[in-house]
C-alpha cells in the first residue's frame, strides 16, 4: 500500500465529479498498479495457458484445423510468456503487460477468424463471451486501455470474418456473436465504473488519512503546547512560591515577636494581608490551570460538617463586621456527623462565593444556607445558597460571569479588585463534584448563587485529633532533623520553626551535601528536602539515600502544586509532600506526624 502523504488542499470537489490534482493522479497511478497487480497477472497467466487449451476443443470434435489453430495459439502464448518475462525481470507494470496481452489475443484470434472457416460459431462465440466475463471480473482498467481493446475487437473481428466470407460474419452474429459484440461494447463502461469507484474510494480514504495526519499533527502541537505551558507554570510556580514562602513564613514569625510599637504591628499586618492576597492570586491561577488540565482529582475523606461550617462562619465574621453587614449562616440541623468528600475543594468553592458576596455588598446582609434535599441509605443531597443584598450582576453579564478573568464590574478605580478567577474556579471545581452553579441576580438588589452536591455520609462521629498548636515545646528532645534547601530564606524559616519547638536540626544547601551528611551520621529522624536544587536535586539525593537501605522519612518541600510531580516524588522514595508557601501550622503538623512515628519505633 502506498503510504505517501497526499496534499488535497487545492483539489476541487463538485457534487457530480471529482477533479483530481496531478499530484493525486501520480499517487493513484502507483496505488492502482499495486492494487491490480495480481488481477493483471492472473489475466496474463490464464491466457498463457488457457488460450492454447481451447484448441483441443477442435481436436475432440475431430476438426482437421486443430493443428493450425494450435500453432497460432501457441505462438500467441509465446508472445504472452515474453511479456511476462519482461514484466518480472524488467519490472514493467502489470497493467501494461495485461493490456498488450489482450491486444495479442485480439490480433491472433482475428487471424484465426480470418483464415479458418467454421461449420458453427456457437461454441467459439460462447467461449469468447465467457472469457470476456472473466476479464471483466478480474481487471480494473482506466477507460483508455479498455476503449482501445473494445475498438480493436469491434473492428478486427468483423473485418476478419468478412475477409473470410460475408456469410461467415452474418453466421457469427447469428450464432452468439451479437452478444459477444454487445458485451465488448459495454466493456469500457463497466471498466470505467469499476475504475472510477476505486479511484473515488482511494481519494476519500487518502483524504481522510491526510486529515487524520493533520489532526494528529495538531494534537501533537497541542500536547507540546500543553506540556510547555505546564512546564512554564511549574517553573513560575517554583520561582514565585519559593520567595513567597519566605515572606509568608517570616511574617507569621514576626507576629509571634514582641513588637515595639503599634506602627510596627500595623506594618506587619499590612504585609501579612498583602502576602496572603498574593498567595491567593498565585493559588487561583495554578488551581485553574490544574483543574482545567484535568490534573486535579477530589480527595475523598470524612469530615465533620458542623465543625466545617462553624469554621467557615468564624472566618468571615471579621470581614462582615468591618462592613457592618449581617452575616447569616443557616445550616440544616439534620446533617449527619460525617460527610465523605473533598473538604478542601468544597471550602474553596464556598469561600470564593461568600468572599464575593461580602465584597460586592455595601449594606444589608450576606446569607449562607445549607438544606437537605434528599437522603438515601449511603448518600445525601445538599442544596447550598449564597445570597446577598449587594449591587447585583447586570443581565448581559450573567452569561459570561463564570468565564476566565471576567468581572461583572470593572470600574476604573479598582473599587472591588480581584483577579476574576474565583467564579471560574468555583464552576470548574463543582464540575469535579458532578454539579453546576446556578445564578439568579437583579442589578441593584443582590445575587443568589446555588448548587447541589451528592455526598456519601456516615452516622458515626469523628474522633477529635490532638491539636498541633497545643503540643509541648520539648516533645522530641532526642530527634534530629536534616533541612535541605538552596534558598537561604526558606532555610531560615524552616530552621526557625524547628528551633521554636526545640527540635535539633542540621542544614544542607543541596542534595549532594545532604547525601554526604546522611552517609556520615545516618542518625536523622526526618529529612526535609527541597526538590529543585543545584549540584544535585532532591530526587537524586533521595534515590541515593534509599539505595543505602534507609527508611528515614523524607518530606519533599516544593513550590510545585502539580499532581504529577507529587506522584513522582512519592513514587521515588519521598514519604510526604509539603507545598510552599506553607503556614507554620502545616509545617508542624507534617513534622510532628513523622517524628511521632520515629519516636514510637525507637
From TrEMBL:
It catalyses: ATP + protein L-histidine = ADP + protein N-phospho-L-histidine. The modification 4-aspartylphosphate is found at residue 530. One of its GO terms (molecular function) is phosphorelay sensor kinase activity. Residues 235-457 form the Histidine kinase domain. Pfam families: HATPase_c (PF02518), HisKA (PF00512), Response_reg (PF00072). CDD domains: HATPase_EvgS-ArcB-TorS-like, HisKA, REC_hyHK_CKI1_RcsC-like. Residues 480-595 form the Response regulatory domain. It comes from the Bacteria. The chain crosses the membrane at residues 42-60, 66-89, 96-118, 124-141, 148-165. InterPro entries: CheY-like_superfamily, HATPase_C_sf, HATPase_dom, His_kinase_dom, HisK_dim/P_dom, HisK_dim/P_sf, Sig_transdc_His_kin-like_C, Sig_transdc_resp-reg_receiver. Its EC number is 2.7.13.3. Keywords: Kinase, Membrane, Phosphoprotein, Transferase, Transmembrane, Transmembrane helix, Two-component regulatory system. It is an enzyme of class 2 (transferase). The keyword Transferase applies. This is histidine kinase.
